[in-house]
Write a structure and sequence with these properties.
16% strand; alpha/beta; globular; 2 domains; 395 residues; TIM Barrel; Enolase-like, domain 1; 36% helix
Length: 395
């Protein structure tokens, strides 16, 4: 005879039911991406996500996807999340992944689940009165160094931009995309990097992002190998996305030959996709994006898996203030995190919260220790970037 079926009955105090999930697209002031098909003012590539509950507690997340797609994704997912317990982010998020696999891993649904998952962790922190980082397992640090993420410009302008952010207190910089590798001029590539290094100073960290996930990236392995040698001469800390994002064999060859660390992974989603890249040794530094990859639950698993393979984790953070907040909480909870990405001059990072992020005297960001993500959205500020911010604040 089989054993009787056991029904788990949750105490009422341990259940906070999801009543609705809303998305608010951000558009109008998206910073330039350096893409071949550049972002237009009317484009939406980020959306904020609000998970509302029957206790009147709302959690917030961010998804790196056109807001119209996020709204469509929420309609597809609603039968799976409505009425679920918002205090169980990993279980609920995995339920959403497992029951939509036949629609494809990655893309709209995975990005949408990312925003939901971040918001669920925010709720769990608010209910328990603890920051997400502590809920994830501990507090390894209370502050972390942000690197100012900037688009590449022509050399003179590049120097001016880096110098301006250096004057604001940043001590680490990443320059990327723009004309680098696209103009087919190695002398220009080096002149841009040299200008950035001079403006940053020898004591600053300088990182370089080719942005080869752009449409029809024109360069290949031999270009990347030559360019890595050049970057070594300017004390560059890593070479990011130097090859097309599916060229795993070339990444493995480049990593073995390059004198500078090789970074990538921002377009990959879910932990399963990262496994071959980690096990085959394609990266020195892996860069999942918490607003794409499946949220905090998935990001944490990828980061720990990378640690098992001896691969450094630095989250990709070209998104919003809520993405930065999630990355900061992960930085608190993981042992070897030394950097977080911080877009220079993005209104979606600097202009949507009640208290904007601020550097301390040494160029670090303090990791919020308030419950949840530790940041609060500002309704009046958001009205500038989304047509109906009220959907984020309904109980």
């Amino acid at each position: 005879m089989g054993s009787p079926t056991t029904t788990v009955t949750e105490p009422a105090r341990d259940v906070v039911r999801i009543t609705a999930i809303e998305a608010a697209p951000l558009f109008g002031e998206t910073p330039k991406g350096g893409w071949s098909a550049e972002i237009r003012p009317e484009d939406s590539i980020h959306a904020l996500v609000a998970v509302h509950t029957d206790r009147g507690i709302t959690g917030y997340g961010s998804a790196f996807t056109d807001g119209r797609l996020v709204a469509a994704g929420l309609r597809v997912l609603e039968p799976l999340f409505r009425g679920e317990n918002a205090l169980e982010p990993e279980r609920v998020s995995e339920k959403l992944h497992q029951n939509t696999f036949w629609m494809g891993r990655g893309g709209t649904l995975t990005h949408t689940i990312s925003g939901i998952d971040i918001a669920l962790w925010d709720i769990l922190g608010k209910v328990t009165g603890m920051p997400v980082g502590r809920l994830l397992g501990g507090t390894y640090r209370r502050r972390v160094l942000p690197y100012c993420s900037l688009l590449m410009e022509q050399p003179a302008e590049m120097a001016d931009v880096v110098a301006a952010y250096r004057a604001r207190g940043f001590r680490a910089f990443k320059i990327g995309w723009g004309p680098f590798g696209r103009a087919g001029d190695p002398k220009l590539d080096e002149a841009i990097v040299a200008a950035a290094r001079r403006a940053a100073g020898d004591d600053a960290q300088l990182l370089v992002d080719a942005g080869a996930s752009d449409a029809h990236w024109p360069q290949g392995l031999k270009w990347a190998m030559r360019t890595a040698e050049m970057l070594k001469d300017h004390n560059v800390g890593w070479f990011e996305e130097p090859l097309r994002p599916d060229a795993i064999d070339d990444f493995c060859i480049l990593r073995k030959s390059s004198p500078v660390p090789i970074a990538g992974g921002e377009v990959l989603t879910r932990r399963q996709t990262f496994l071959p890249w980690l096990s085959r040794g394609a990266f020195d530094i892996v860069q999942p994006d918490v607003t794409k990859v499946g949220g905090i639950s998935e990001q944490r698993r990828i980061a720990w898996m990378a640690d098992d393979f001896g691969v450094r984790y630095v989250g990709h953070g070209w998104n919003t203030a809520l993405g930065v907040a999630a990355d900061l909480q992960l930085a608190a909870a993981l042992p070897n995190v030394t950097l977080v990405e911080f877009i220079g001059g993005s209104p979606y990072v600097d202009g949507i919260t009640e208290e904007p992020f601020a550097l301390d005297a040494e160029g670090y960001l303090t990791i919020p220790d308030k419950p949840g993500l530790g940041v609060a959205l500002d309704r009046e500020k958001l009205a500038r970037y989304t047509p109906d911010p009220s959907v984020l604040f309904r109980a």
